[in-house]
Amino acid sequence: MGRFTLRQSFRPVVDGVGTTYHASMHTVEQIVVIGSGNWGLALASVFSVRHPVRVWTINAEMAGQLDADRGKAGLYNKHPIPKEIVIEEKYSSEVDSGSTLFLLAVPSGQVRSVARELGTHAKHPLVVTVSKGFDAEKQCTMSEVISREIPDAHVVVLTGPTIANEVAAGLPTRAVLACDNLMHLALVRDALRNDVISFEVSRNPVHHETCAALKGLVAIAAGIADGLGLGANAQGVIMTEGLRELSVVASFFGIPEEIAYGISGAGDLITTCLSTESRNRRLGAILAEGKTLEEALGEVRMTVEGVAMSRTIETLWSLDVSIPLFHSVNAILGGKVSDVRKELCELIAHL
C-alpha cells in the first residue's frame, strides 16, 4: 500500500469485510487537479481553501492563458481562479505521490490515456475520479478504467448532482465519495472538506458510477422534449419513466434501491434534466432541431457522457429488460428515427 503522509501510525485498520491492514493513516498535503475544464477548475477553487492546489493543463499555452485570465472569465474559464492556485503544464513540476491527492477531471474518453500517463509518474497514487462516463468498449466505469491502467492506485469516486458553474459560484450541493477501502475513504473525505459540497460516503463505487452514467440518457430525452416544445408535462413524464428505468437497470446489476434513488441516481438525474447547463440536455435540444448526432456533438463542443452509455444499455433491451425510454433515446442517437416528435409522443402515450 502507498503512504499518504509523513507520520506513521501502524495501527490495524479493518476494511469492513474482515481484512486487517497495518497501514499509515496520513494527511494529504496538496491536491493536483488533472484537467482544466469547468469542472476541474470549479473543484480546484473549492478545495484550495484548505489545501495547496495545482491545476495541470494539457500544454503550456493553455496554462498561460488560464493564468492570464485568472481574475476574470476568460477563454477557458467561466469564473475567476483564486490566485493561490498554481496553474502549469502537466508534469512540469515534480510532486510527491505519497502526500498528493490526484483529482482526475478529464472527459471519460481521455481517462484511460491520462491514467496510463499518471501511472508512469506516480507510485501508489491516491486518485479521485470525477468523470461520470462509461467505457462502452471495455464495459466498465471510470474507476475500473483507472484501476486497470494503474494497478497500484487507490481510487475514490466523487459523483452526484454537481453542476460545475454552480459549484464555482459557491452554491451548496451534496455528493457521494465512494471507495471499497475505508482508510482511503476517510482520508479523502477529510481532505476534501469544504463549505460548498457536503459528502455522503459509500463502499460501492461502481454502483454509484453506473447510476450516474445512466442519468445522461434521461437528460437527453428531456432536452429533446424541451426542444420540440412538448412542455413541462411531457418532461415530467420522461423524468418519471427515466427514474423507473434507472431503477430497473440498477436492479438488473444488483445495485441497491437506496443508491438508485439516492443523490448519485435520482438526485443527479433530476439535476441534469432540469439544468440548462447540462451537456446531455443541450445535446437533446439540438437533436430536436433535426440535426444528426455528429452535428449536435459538434455544437456542444464538449464530451456528452450519456452517448457512450446509450450504446451499452441497448444490450439490455435485447434481453427483454423493460427500458423503452432508453431504447428510444438510443434509436434517436443512432439516426434510426425519422420523426423524433412522433417517437416521443407515442412513447409517452404507451408507457
Explain this structure to me?
This protein has 351 residues and is α/β, with parallel strands linked by helices. It has two domains: 11-203, Rossmann fold (3-Layer(aba) Sandwich); 210-350, N-(1-d-carboxylethyl)-l-norvaline Dehydrogenase, domain 2, CATH 1.10.1040.10. It contains 15 helices and twelve strands. The chain has helices at residues 38-47, 60-68, 108-121, 142-149, 164-168, 182-191, 205-227, 231-252, 257-260, 263-274, 279-287, 293-300, 305-318, 324-333, 340-350, and strands spanning 11-14, 20-23, 30-34, 53-57, 86-89, 100-104, 126-129, 134-135, 140-141, 154-159, 173-178, 197-202. Strands 5-4-3-6-7-10-11-12 form an eight-stranded mixed beta sheet, with helices on both faces. It has a two-stranded antiparallel sheet with strand order 1-2. Helix 3 (108-121) packs parallel to helix 4 (142-149), helix 7 (205-227) runs antiparallel to helix 8 and helix 13 (305-318) crosses helix 14 (324-333). The longest helix has 23 residues, at 205-227. It is globular. It starts with 10 loop residues before the first strand and ends with a helix.
